[in-house]
Structure formats: C-alpha cells, structure tokens
Hints:
The chain has about 140 residues and is an alpha/beta fold. It is built from five helices and five strands. The protein has one domain (about 15-135): Rossmann fold, CATH 3.40.50. It has helices at about 25-35, 45-50, 70-80, 100-110, 120-130; strands at about 15-20, 40-45, 60-65, 90-95, 110-115. Strand 3 (about 60-65), helix 3 and strand 4 form a beta-alpha-beta unit.
Amino acid sequence: MxxxxxxxxxxxxxxxxxxxxxxxxxxxxxxxxxxLGLEIVEAVNGVEALEKSTDRAWTFALVDVNxxxxxxxxxxxxxxxxxxxxxxPVLMVSTDTQPGCRRRAxxxxxxxxLNKPVxxxxxxxxxxxxxGGADARA
Length: 138
C-alpha cells in the first residue's frame, strides 16, 4: 500500500508545470496537486510550455510524451538547454509501455518515466519529495 500525503502537508516551494494535451488528464493532475498547496501552470503542448518557461524556475514538470506541435521529448530536450531551467525535475508520462519509449524519454533528459494512469498516491508522494513536503522528511 502506498503512503498518501496528508492534505495539510506544507511545501517549501511549489510551482508545477503540467504539459498535457488532454483536458481530462490536466484536470486530474490539478485535482491531486492543488490540494497539496502547489501552484499549477498548464500548457497543452511543448510550444506553449516553452513560452511559459521564460521567467521563473519550476519545482518540477509533469510532461506527456505524445502531444501536437511539439512533443514532450522535444520539449524536455529544449528545456535542458535553458540555463536556470536545465535542472528542472521532469516526470514524463505516457500510455506507451514499450522499453524504447522509456529509453527515449531518459535520453531526452527525463528524471523519471511513469505510465498512465498515474495513481493519486504515487503523484502525491513524488510531489512531496520534489517540493519538499513535510511528509517527504518523515
């Protein structure tokens, strides 16, 4: 059984970029992360995500692999070239369970590769670790 992060967990910082073309999936991520006190910034593709990645650093990015205009792999490759944003932890997510997709994600610069659907408890636990939540230190 996976531990769940208490809703009252306090985060030291928390600005998350969600890059996902599915409205339903974006809403799901928001429903899990916002109650933890994280600010969510959404982008529907890699182009929009790059446009939103110009001023402040992200605590982490949650990025779909397959999207129109600019896919997640290309977005991550570009993000890794951007000075202060290059070290952003990137959680790549996809329905593709093939080892080749996972390998390409890591080669592009992903920090972690997850298969959809991502369980609520998994997302909460990763958010706690990446955003410095109280439960991450317990």
